[in-house]
Amino acid sequence: MIRTTCTTATAVALLAALTAGCGTTGMNPHGVNVTEMKADERGFVAGTGIESQDLVAVADKMARSILATTQIANAQGKPNIVLEPVVNETRFPINKEIFLTRIRVALNTKAGGKVTFLARDRMDALEKERDLKQTGKVTGGTPNAPVEFKGADFILTGKLQGISTRSNTGASDYVLYTFQLIDPRTSAILWEDFAEIKKQGQSDAVYR
Amino acid sequence: MNKVCQLVAVALFAVGCAAPEIKKAPVASNDLVAEGKKLIAAAPNRDKILWRYRVALVAMKSGRFAEARQLLDECLPTVGAILTADERTIKARSLFGNEAQKIYVGESYEQAMAYFYRGLLYWMDGEPDNARACFKSAQLIDGDAKDKSFASDFVLLDYLDGLATTKLLGDGGDMLRRARASAKTNALPDYVASANVLVFTQFGFGPLKYGGGKYGERLQYHAGYSPVFAARFKMGEQMVEAKALDDLTFQATTRGGRLMDDILADKGSLKKPLDAIATVAPLAGAVLAGPKETRGAALPLIGAGIAAGAVSNTAEAMADTRTWNNLPQHLAFAAFRLPPGPQVVAIEFLDRDGKPLPKLSRTLTFEVRADRDTVLFISDQ
Question: What domains are there in chain A, each with its CATH number?
Answer without folding.
Answer: 47-207 (3.40.50.10610)
